Amino acid sequence: LDAGDVVVPTVRRRPNGANDYFERGEPDMAPGGQYHERGIEGAHGFMAEYFTSPAEFLVEIPDALADRGFLVEPASISEKAFEHAYAARSAFDWQPESALVLGNGSLGLLTLAMLEADDRFERTYCLGRRDRPDPTIDLVEALGATYVDSRETPVPEIPDAHEPVDFVYEATGYAKHAFETVDALAPNGVGALLGVPEEWAFEVDGGRLHRELVLENKALVGSVNSGVDHFEAAVDTLQSLPEWLFDDLVTGVYDLDEFDRAFVDDETTIKTAVQFDSR
Fold it and tell me: What residue numbers bound the domain in which 106 lies?
């Protein structure tokens, strides 16, 4: 790195002392208690004019991507989920054609755009629970995907209403979706779970789900955080996405003196950011 380079920092840092996960360059795979997360647990975040970081945790991005650098981290989360999903199917010739994103928040919509840009997927779907007119539904359909209203078509009914899907990306944090993903999957399909739900006890037909996983060769993987290689992949992916997507996805970028506007939650807001004028 040279002075003046534009960089994006990864999130995890060594706790008090190193451990094998950091030594192997796999901090994103460290279990709880063996890392600090900037802005989340054990260390302050990056919402400041200046911060310091070891160079190994900084990922260079092109100057042209500087104004959208805040999208690299969420995109990297999806890059890791994709990697783990494909790894779970690597024992055979898996050729997915359809994908379903559960959740039409900013992460779900960004992930949907990434899947739409992937030539391996011919058909994509996005689950939400909003009424038209709505900017997230407009964005889903502008990407060429099919919007699925969960109030009309719950996740287990998607195979009958549309089709069983090869890949499910869960970004809702709604605990039942983890189990309902099994119902939505096609044989040999895989679901990536990224939501982190609160404690919630409910009944499920464990025998039926177990049978589905075994007899139909289905799989579920959990994924959290991401590493430098996922950040680098995210940089490449973001540069390949259409320009109009960012205009529709990012509904507000605010200066520090109006940061509170970035946290307004209404039906027109999708993704916001706070900017610091230090360049």
Answer: 92-222
Global pTM value:
0.96
| Locus of tokens 């078509």 | 153
By DSSP bridging, strand 123-128 and strand 42-43 are: unpaired
Peptide bond between residue 133 and the one before it cis (omega within 30 degrees of 0): yes
What's the CATH code of the domain at 237? Answer: 3.90.180.10
In a domain, 81, yes or no: no
Q: Tell me the sheet residues that pair with 274.
A: 254
Q: What is the pLDDT of residues 44-71, one digit of tens each?
A: 999 888 999 999 999 999 999 999 999 9
Give per-residue pLDDT as tens, 86-103: 999 999 999 999 999 999
**Is the per-residue pLDDT at 279 higher than 60?**
no
21/192 Cα distance (integer angstroms): 22
Q: What is the DSSP letter of 41?
A: B
Taking CA atoms, 45 is separated from 36, 51, 53, 241, 261, in Å, by: 11, 9, 11, 28, 20
The gap from C-alpha 188 to its chain's centroid, in whole angstroms, comes to 22
Q: How many CB atoms lie within 10 A of CB 111?
A: 27
Q: Which amino acid does the sequence have at 43?
A: A
The pLDDT assigned to 17 comes to 82
Residues 235 and 196 in one domain: no
